Amino acid sequence: RMWGWPRRLSRSSLPERQGGIPCVPVFPSSPLFSAAPRSRVKGPAQGAGGRSRPHAGLGTSRCLTGSVGTRRVINADKSRFNEDQAACCHISVRRREPGQEQHEEWLILCSTQYLTGSYWALFDGHGGPEAASIASNYLHYCIKQKLEEVAGALAAAPPPMHLSGRRVCGSDPQFVQEKQIHTEDLVVGALENAFQECDEVIGQEMEATNQTGGCTALAALYFQGKLYVANAGDSRAILVLKDDVVPMSCEFTPETERQRLQHLAFLFPKLLDGEFTRFEFPRRLKGDDVGQKVLYRDYFMEGWGYKTVEKADLKYPLVHGHGKQARLLGTLAVSRGLGDHQLKVIDTNIEVKPFLSCIPKVKVFDLALHDIKEDDVLIMATDGLWDVLGNEEVTHMARSFLAENRTDPHRFSQLAKCLVCRARGKKRGHQWMLDDSHEASYDDISVFVIPLHNRDERC
């Protein structure tokens, strides 16, 4: 259950935009959210089938000064619902004593007596918008809770062995030093724990409302002068600096996590229920391959070897397909994310969730160690953008656009809009095409453009 907050979201409770398409509010009614209004771009282009593909925008973040830009476009052919969701807010953290009330007025303050941070997140839903909606309401709250649990140690360098400050063993400080445990490790741990707790909440809520589905999650937290980017899924974040491009996330797909998935199947073969094989082969094997030696890979292999094909090897592969067509258990195109607790392989009792990790990979960037320029930005986007645009093209667009529009107070929002429109392409006949005549993205597209210059050092 959601313990009364945030409120449960269901299709029947979603406000509707023009054309009867439900719209989940980007900024929920929560004291932790900066209640900036959402804007719309006039004159939405028409998608295939004559239905609109509207843009939407978020407001500004006050901690990293300047207008934080975001734009979204809905692919009406994919579903009636926008499965991409977004959230941004300020998070205030103070040391929480045992038994202390959690919902107090200080939650909405951004004062020097509290540790404060800025938060942005994108959620790409699959199997419906419900999991993404819950995550956009709740992940920031989980992060705040987990940061509060370690708040007493965030000001110490290095953090103490015992949070209470007691020294039970004289070698405790030496242990922390030898393990090279730093304050940023506590923040990384808080983010990892927050993702896990949010995943549990989504599972409980979806079960209680008899709903299914999941979502990927990409979250950025600016806290104590450092930028933390946590990713579970195939969305992507990059830092576009004056003289460099810094990838801040890596995509988690069945292909990139093949060895982890195969190792899990090796340790717990019952998870495959005799329907799948953990081995990877260059192609799906046929009956005539039995007895032949063919190329294969197991969980411990980066390279390839040869294996004599047995009848059991003819089963469907645990990881099958290549690129965007790769699937986990023939079902999911991602290997990490939130939700999907009720998801089973079609016509079987095989659960997908044991293979689907909710734990993010967290990357840290210390802004204090770099000379941040006026046009340096963090770009976060769901896979609808990255499917058709690479890091190089996005970087070139960002640098060129920001350099040509330095006096425009809304230039970050305009850049986000340009990126969305570029990936969406233009309609030619019955297809949407890019300028280079390649097929455009037919997925939902959400983009954050976050300026890094003139940040508030208190956050």
Automatic annotation (TrEMBL):
Gene3D superfamilies: PPM-type phosphatase domain (3.60.40.10). Coiled coil: none annotated. Residues 78-452 form the PPM-type phosphatase domain. It comes from Nothoprocta perdicaria. Residues 35-61 are annotated as: Disordered. GO terms for molecular function: [pyruvate dehydrogenase (acetyl-transferring)]-phosphatase activity. GO terms for cellular component: mitochondrion. This is Protein phosphatase, Mg2+/Mn2+ dependent 1M. Pfam families: PP2C.
